[in-house]
Write a structure and sequence with these properties.
single chain; about 150 residues; mainly alpha; Ferritin
């Protein structure tokens, strides 16, 4: 049952983030000055799909091995904080067009991924490593967010 809950949280994060993103795509996003190396939307979608799958696997690996206790609770809280920051960034950037504030949320999101990696590493090294692409992508996206904000 807990594995279905993990999948539901990851899927819900993905769908809600996609919804907020879709609200800002179109006229507003196409009017922005973007860095030349901005990846196309289809590539970004594929990356996020992969990240969500890897995150779900990392969570499942952790919860299969972890015993209930303080670490279990902290990891659960951090996964939920991470999901919230993930969705909130999409809302700030794409729906509210608050690119400057979104930079701060993106940085917080990246830090939350690093904290998750640190917390789950003692239980599942594989799980922690599966989150490495997420951390890398978020820090790249934070930099991209900064450049878009500075160009506009």
């Amino acid at each position: 049952m807990k594995y279905l809950l993990i999948i539901a949280v990851v899927l819900g994060t993905s769908l809600l983030g996609s919804y907020f993103t879709s609200l800002g795509l179109g006229e507003w996003y196409s009017s922005l000055n973007l860095p030349d190396f901005t990846p196309p939307g289809s590539f970004i979608g594929a990356v996020w799909t992969t990240i969500y799958i890897l995150t779900a696997i990392a969570a499942i690996l952790f919860y299969r091995k972890a015993k209930r206790g303080p670490q279990w609770k902290w990891v659960t809280v951090m996964f939920l904080v991470n999901a919230s920051l993930n969705v909130f960034w999409s809302y700030l950037f794409f729906t509210e067009h608050l690119m400057g504030v979104a930079i701060l949320k993106a940085a917080a999101l990246g830090i939350s991924v690093l904290v998750l990696m640190y917390l789950i590493y003692p239980v599942t090294r594989t799980g922690a490593l599966l989150l490495a692409p997420y951390a890398g992508w978020v820090f790249f996206a934070t930099y991209l967010n900064y450049l878009i904000w500075s160009l506009n």
